[in-house]
Structure formats: structure tokens, C-alpha cells
Write a structure and sequence with these properties.
The complex is a heterodimer of chains A (about 130) and B (about 70).
Chain A (H helix, E strand, L loop, with lengths): L3 E3 L8 H10 L6 E9 L5 E10 L11 E6 L2 E7 H6 L5 H21 L2 E7 L2 E7 L1
Antiparallel strand pairs in A: 1-5, 2-3, 3-4, 4-5, 6-7
Helix pairs in contact in A: 1-3
Chain B lengths: L2 E7 L4 E7 L6 H12 L28
Antiparallel strand pairs in B: 1-2
Classes of the chains: A alpha+beta (about 130), B alpha+beta (about 70).
Chain lengths: ~130, ~70
């Protein structure tokens, strides 16, 4: 049985951008509510609850539900150790942060009524917003 | 023209921001938007531009009327 790990250092402050980032990774179907129970890959209910949940059916046959707990600072991911190692090639949280960061830039550009120019410098993504 | 340069590292997902062409604390407005969306930054440093006083061009208007 896979246990759940919380990542309090990884915060997603904005709900709308978090949902958009999840959709970018292919997890556009989520459940939202208060105290939603998480279920393991065998359908077993876990003690952990969350406010945003991606059900395991949308992840993989051996995956467990994926949750995000709302805190005063933002949403904190709750990922099973199995999914932490396997989802998105073991890079789920990094990819989610990258997608979230891209949406942050897009939102700042929108708020500033700016224009953006995107480029790659080595492995880094550079986005210049003029306003 | 003011510009904000964002750098995203896909190896970590971390975002860095550099505001250019804005003299003085006016760049705090941009930082405020980013802080709202990302939370408090792990590291924040003001560049030399931050300490520049914004240049104010005096305008002399001709007297109207009479």
C-alpha cells in the first residue's frame, strides 16, 4: 500500500491557474469540494482528505487519487509515494510547477496589458513581457 | 518601455523574475501581481534601478485665457 506524502514547500496560490496547469498535463477532470476523501488504487478509502482531487481513473491503473489541500497560503499537493515516482516519468510535481509558472506569466501579461516574447536559452524558458 | 523578464527552469519548475526599465519602487506593482499568484518569494533582491528616482519632467503650460 502506497502512503501519501505532503509537499508543504510546493504551493499553488491561485486555484484557477492550478486547474489550468493540471489540464495542461492531461488532468482536466477534477473534483472540488470540502473534505473529499482520497482512495487508493484498490478502491480503499484513505484517511487523507483534500479540496481538489484528481481521481485515480484519470491517472493510471495502479495510481492512487491525487489531492490538493487548501491552506491559508495556497494549495499543497498530496501525492502517494507510488505516483510521486511514476506519474509523468516521476516528474509530476516539477512538470506541474513548470506549467503553473507558465500560467503565472500569462496572467501577469494579461494584468499588465502587455505583449510577450518567448525564447529558449539552453534548457531555460525565457519570457519577456513588455507593457 | 518597461519589461519583465521571466525565467522558468523546467528542471525544477521554479520561476525567476527581473523587472527592467522601471525606476524606483514602481516595480513593486509588478512584484505584487507575481506574489499574489506565486506566494512569497524565496529570494528577493532590488536592482540598482530600484534605487533610482523616477525622472519627472516639469511641464510649463501656457496661461490660458485673457
Amino acid at each position: 500500500m502506497s502512503k501519501y506524502l505532503q509537499f508543504p514547500d510546493i504551493l499553488f496560490t491561485d486555484r484557477k491557474l492550478l486547474l489550468a496547469a493540471l489540464a495542461d498535463l492531461g488532468y482536466g477532470t477534477v473534483e472540488e469540494g470540502e473534505g473529499l476523501s482520497l482512495f487508493g488504487y484498490r478502491g480503499d478509502q484513505r484517511p487523507e482528505t483534500a479540496q481538489i482531487v484528481v481521481r485515480r481513473q484519470h491517472l493510471g491503473s495502479a495510481s492512487n487519487d491525487l489531492g490538493f489541500i487548501r491552506t491559508p497560503q495556497g494549495y499543497v499537493p498530496l501525492v502517494s509515494d507510488y505516483d510521486q515516482q511514476t506519474l509523468q516519468g516521476g516528474r509530476f510535481l516539477v512538470k506541474l510547477r513548470t506549467a503553473y509558472s507558465e500560467h503565472v506569466v500569462e496572467e501577469v501579461k494579461r494584468r499588465l496589458h502587455g505583449t510577450a516574447r518567448r525564447s529558449l536559452e539552453g534548457s531555460l524558458i525565457k519570457i519577456k513581457v513588455r507593457y | 518601455m518597461p519589461e519583465v523578464e521571466f525565467t522558468i527552469d523546467p528542471a525544477t519548475g521554479k520561476l525567476e523574475m527581473h523587472v527592467k526599465g522601471v525606476a524606483g519602487p514602481a516595480c513593486d506593482d509588478v512584484a505584487k501581481h507575481v506574489r499574489e499568484l506565486l506566494g512569497e518569494p524565496g529570494h528577493e533582491q532590488n536592482t540598482s534601478e530600484y534605487y533610482l528616482r523616477p525622472r519627472v519632467t516639469p511641464q510649463i503650460r501656457p496661461k490660458s485665457g485673457s
